Amino acid sequence: MPNHDAASEDSAAILRMAFAFVTSQTLYVAADLGIADYLAAGPLTAPELAATLGLHPDALARLAQALAAFGILRLEAGRFGLTATGQLLRSDSPRSLRATVRFLAGPWAWRAFEQLSHSVRSGESSFEHVWGVSNFDYWRQNPEVSAIHDEAMTGLTATEIARVLEAYDFTPFHSIVDVGGGNGALLAAILRRQPTARGILMDLPHVVELAPTVLRDAGVEARCEVVPGSFFESVPSGADLYLLKHIIHDWDDDRSFTILTNCNRSMGNDSRLLIIDRVLSDQPNVAEPMGYLVDMTMLAMTPGGRERTEGQFRALLASAGLRFERSINVGGICDIVEARRS
Fold it and tell me: Are residues 274 and 327 in the same domain?
């Protein structure tokens, strides 16, 4: 006898996945409009919120109802308010994911994913196919999108930093280089926890422009040098620890080899290298799809980027003269791969 309940569950699962783009765009519109910011002071009726934002009242009410069904808003006595989950869409939340949602589901990404089949057929970036430039060049050419990207990465980093600090013991290290470290949020957090350690933050000149403010606010500016540069050319030498957070997954094996080789050249025999990226399981798990969603994002959006399994990390590190030591599950969308010179 066929199991109709199981068949219904399978059908529902397929439909949820097929409708996921509707969920994504509903969430994007809410984030882009800043609805959570307008509800921060308290619940409003749909007409009140529509009047404040200059939106169509009925259409806004339908959007709000969908957001309530997603658990972003709650509807009580005709007024829409924020749930604990919805608070994460507020711009002023310490763990705000508003910019992250705007970045992941914005038109630059949306149009790239329309052409995901191009990537699957060719192995090439569908983003570059659509926009005519790499995603990194696109950010440089569009400062307003670059600002959303930077804020999105800050939002993700804020969540990941606490997990990384909890999962890894940084006490043995006195000098730390964050390679491609953005605005320095991760390095600043490590230096705050390690008051005798010193750091070097390296990234492209236009990226590290915001770093002095982050380092100053963290109280570590005097212990951290900011070095503009490209990890494809060289990496500061002589440190105990090197960090590569969400760097290797942006690039194909050839360019990752260049980055890792430059790190190897700058490391001492006792230095350690941490790659903070997701480590995919050899056997995909239906209960943990996030790593594969990120991998599809890398396939569509980046010039050859990908998430890797432990075996792929081992092989990549070995090609650059580095030895895989261990991987540490951090949770969320990242893990830690520890390596040293062979």
Answer: yes
